[in-house]
Amino acid sequence: MLPDLSVLWVIALVLLLTVILQQLFFKPLLRVMHAREDAVQSARSLAERSAAEARRASEEFDAKTTAARAAFYRELDDMRHQGQEERASMLSAARDQADRELEQARVTLAADTAQARAQLEQDARQLGEQLADRLAGRTH
To answer: Cα separation of 4 and 8, whole Å?
Structure first.
């Protein structure tokens, strides 16, 4: 038994159609699919690089911000210390001036007190003499 020739024709046509479809449809389709796969892979790697750069930039920004805050707080602390030192200096100067004025007032008060005592003693002596003269009957 000899196979039917139409079967051979069908096999030949199927093989021919396979070759034609392979050349005209599947190869270009696979080429496009590979190109898209390469483009997707390239886009992914670019996105990963961009994300890494963004992370680095964010970390750098955070580091610079932290450093700037630290510098600001140091300057603020220095200014606070300087203000406290100036305040202490002003208080010390005010105390010194108050002590000098108090001492001057004490000296003045002591001098005034001594002068008043001397005046009172002199007045008391004169009054005593006048009183003694009146009691003794002498008139001046």
So the answer is: 7
